[in-house]
């Protein structure tokens, strides 16, 4: 990055810091910066953030998706960035919920991605509850990129969703830094109800891998006559050493 480019970036960061002290200021600056970046790059990195769309977030640090997993120590839901991409990884799905002022929430079966007390967490909820305030995000373009974004907490301005190269949650230093650790790309899985498909949606993940069989198909196969006959023959067969 050139010296002037570095100064420009620092000026933008300073403007965001000042705007956070004014009600609505951070939203206005985010919207303006995103609009300028889209015009310059000729592409909107947020094009798939439509209500009801199902997406995946790909961490630029780990090159894997953000997924929900169960912590071994506490048995609580947490997230990491070592998930797979495509339709066969539902624990890496995020449903887009659009809020006011261009803000967003993201949940998987009403388990919300959030930043609480400065830490990246998963907050379980339900259909009858409002989205948690800790799960509200501003989406900022990575200036100079046509694909990458940052997810900044509305509840805790200046904190971002971030992961390291191993896909583990970023520490407080990384969470408060707009660098590669916080850069994400959006992978579209499915359009929401009534959402008009984009003309250029070749970024939808397609896989040559065969879809895994359903539970019932696998269960029926294991109890089929052919399977039982093989099991019976196997039980009656004598070993070579007998």
From TrEMBL:
Stretches with biased composition (Polar residues): 229-242
Comp. bias (Low complexity): 217-228
Superkingdom assignment: Eukaryota
Source species of the chain: Adineta steineri
Listed name of the protein: Uncharacterized protein
Annotated spans, Disordered: 192-242
